[in-house]
From TrEMBL:
Residues 150-246 form the LCCL domain. This is Discoidin, CUB and LCCL domain-containing protein 1-like. It comes from Serinus canaria. Its main location: membrane. CDD domains: CUB, FA58C. Keywords: Disulfide bond, Membrane, Phosphoprotein, Transmembrane, Transmembrane helix. Residues 293-401 form the F5/8 type C domain. The keyword Lipoprotein does not apply. It is a single-pass type I membrane protein. It holds the Pfam family F5_F8_type_C. One of its GO terms (molecular function) is signaling receptor activity.
Length: 654
């Protein structure tokens, strides 16, 4: 800031001293004896009056020049403006102006405060001037700023109780770490909602105080007790139950596994009994119980090295002392990293100008956390103690996550004509396939055509197979329903499926009575014929549950189930299975004098005689049928009458 700009603004006030000549405007963006805590960066910052929040001094002034990157404007958040009131703020005041455009905001004091907590300017350069005369009270001022890229800018004094929503996302400016305000809790438990939000974010390692940044957190149910912790240069308080607590969101905050520990040296302790206990490098793991790693006494350049096995995204470190009866711990240290274990790079933080000194432990029992912002991407991490208490003793754990793999886009390579490629490149060594020539430029389309042809052939094969199966099934159904009946010749494929085409059976194929002494009668046919067979065509046909004869002209419909026959025809029962229904007795020779006789029984309606084959009668015995009708038994009525058209033949067991 040029001193002339402060002098121009000083014309608005009376008795305002100019900036000291010892302060060079090119080296410092602010000047004056009334400047308090100040941290200014290109993207955000914080400024305050001297002694804030105590009473600011009399007859003092401070001038700050804020400069944002080109193409952006400046936003100002008024955290506190407590200047002693006066007419037109003549005694103590705050004035903001843009010297390039001549726009001014203010003056502000206690009786003329800004109308809104956030001021949006249209300029990338703003000069802030604070002055005071004789006064009695007043805390002074606290102002933060950021660029127009962060419209959710908040002041360093905002607390968690200022919000009611469960999820909060705000932009914290740089420089809130050293602002007065209390925090309760720690990164693992969370923080009371009465804590200063941005200061708690620095303590949790979410943002770096020298940079500021976006903060995302949740307001969750409070806990009974908040433990105190030291982290990132801040000491939190031990607090009691609160209604809500603040939990900050960190995407990469897991404990990393250390494959190997190594150290410059380690201490071999010899106790009073002469026993040796080694404080080796493996004892530096934070999860181990008992003593820690300790360097050899007198070592001035001691270091502890941690090998993660592969490159990791390291976001923080936790250190601890000896954690035993000895009170050994490291108070400050440097951190360096390496990807190959040979070339080491010191960590310098966001400033990048000098090696960052991390604040370590204050006792041998507590744990201290420090965040790496920006994170370290390396496989090897080395801790070099700078100051310690009594002896170098250390336990360490690293926080972070796996390194995200980023696909690097391939550079664009312009296409080269085919003739040039054939003239410059060497022919590829491959075995040619006879009859097949593949052009690399057409390999994709050729593969697509081959896939389409293969799919078509497979589809045709499936259709043919389906048609063949349907044909076989239909043929089986036709053979089943056409009635390949025992005793009839097999139908040819050219014949119509109709019982009319079957040849008429001959009665001679079914012998009506066995020949005496013929044992072949015991072999029953494969199909059992019905008991009653009507052989007279002139007789009246009645309904029957058996399959009709061939002469009736019955045609079997082409169906798979005989219960599904449509039409007017009666449903007929199929013949019994091929096993004989009745077991035939063995034939034995008849004794002498015994013979079988066949009798004709005439019905009451003079119907055709019915023939029964009965056993031989004893002398003087008449058949029962003759006795019932009163007809005398005679030789003429017995025998085998061949004129009987209807006969029932029964076979009696011997």
């Amino acid at each position: 800031m040029a001193r002339s700009q402060c002098l121009v603004l000083s014309a608005y006030f009376q008795d305002i001293p100019s900036c000291p000549d010892a302060v060079s405007p090119e080296k410092s963006p602010f000047c004056g004896n009334g400047c308090g805590h100040t941290l200014l960066t290109p993207h955000s910052g914080t400024l305050s009056s001297k002694n804030y929040p105590g009473t600011y001094p009399n007859h003092t002034m401070c001038c700050w020049r804020l400069q944002a990157p080109p193409g952006t404007s400046i936003l100002l958040a008024f955290g506190d403006v407590d200047l002693e009131p006066s007419e037109h703020c003549a005694h103590s005041s705050l004035l903001l102006a843009d010297p390039q455009t001549g726009t001014a905001y203010g003056p502000y004091c206690r009786n003329s405060v800004p109308s809104a907590s956030l001021l949006v300017t249209n300029s990338s350069t703003v000069t802030v001037l604070f002055n005071s005369t004789s006064h009695r009270s007043g805390r002074g001022l606290l102002v933060s700023y950021a660029t127009s890229q962060h419209p959710d800018l908040v002041s360093c004094l905002v607390r968690g109780t200022h919000y009611t929503q469960e999820h909060i996302s705000v932009y914290c400016p740089a420089g809130c770490k050293d602002i007065h305000g209390d925090i309760w809790g720690n990164p693992s438990q969370g923080y009371r909602d009465t804590s200063v939000l941005c200061k708690a974010a620095v303590h949790a390692g979410v943002i770096a105080d020298e940079l500021g940044g976006q903060v995302t957190l949740s307001r969750e149910k409070g806990i009974t007790l908040y433990e105190s912790a030291f982290a990132n240069g801040l000491r939190s308080k031990r607090g009691s139950l609160s209604e809500k607590r603040l939990v900050f969101h960190k995407d990469c905050d897991d404990v990393l596994e250390v494959v190997t520990f190594n150290a410059s040296s380690w201490w071999h302790e010899v106790d009073v009994l002469g026993q040796v206990r080694a404080w080796v490098a493996e004892r530096a793991a934070l999860s181990t119980t008992g003593h820690s790693w300790a360097a050899e006494p007198g070592a001035k350049a001691a270091w502890l090295e941690l090998d993660l096995g592969t490159r990791r995204n390291v976001t923080g470190i936790i250190t601890k002392g000896s954690s035993e009866q000895h009170n050994y711990y490291v108070m400050s240290y440097h951190v360096s990293s390496s990807r190959d274990g040979k070339n080491w790079r010191p960590y310098r933080g966001s400033s990048g100008q000098e090696d960052k000194v991390f604040e370590g432990n204050a006792d041998s029992q507590g744990e201290v956390s420090n965040a790496f912002i920006p994170p370290i991407i390396a496989r090897y991490i080395r801790v070099t103690p700078q100051s310690w208490h009594q002896r170098i003793a250390l336990k360490v754990a690293l926080m972070g996550c796996q390194l995200a793999r980023v696909r690097i886009p391939r550079p664009y390579v312009p296409s080269v004509p085919k003739e040039v490629l054939e003239a410059t490149r060497q022919p590829a060594s491959r075995t040619p396939i006879p009859g097949i020539t593949l052009d690399p430029e057409k390999a994709g389309s050729t593969l697509l055509v081959m896939l389409l042809i293969g799919s078509f052939v497979l589809l045709c094969s499936c259709l043919l197979l389906l048609a063949f199966l349907c044909y076989r099934k239909r043929k089986s159904a036709v053979e089943l329903n056409c009635g390949i009946t025992k005793g009839y010749p097999k139908l040819e494929s050219s014949q119509v499926c109709s019982l009319q085409s079957l040849p008429a059976p001959s009665l001679a194929s079914f012998p009506m009575t066995p020949t005496p002494g013929d044992l072949s009668w015991t072999h029953s046919p494969e199909y059992t014929e019905p008991d009653l067979v009507q052989v007279n065509p002139s007789s009246q046909t009645g309904p029957s549950t058996f399959k009709p004869l061939l002469e009736e002209g019955y045609t079997l419909p082409l169906v798979l189930n005989h219960y599904d026959v449509p039409g007017k025809h009666n449903e007929y029962a199929e013949p019994l299975p091929p096993e004989p229904e009745y077991a035939m007795p063995f034939s034995e020779p008849e004794p002498a004098g015994m013979h079988r006789s066949t009798c004709i029984i005439t019905g009451p309606a003079r119907c055709s005689p019915v023939q029964y084959q009965t056993p031989a009668l004893r002398p003087g015995e008449l058949p029962a049928a003759v006795e019932g009708t009163g007809s005398p038994y005679s030789e003429g009525s017995c025998g085998w009458p061949r004129h009987c058209p209807l006969a029932h033949v029964y076979h009696e067991a011997l």
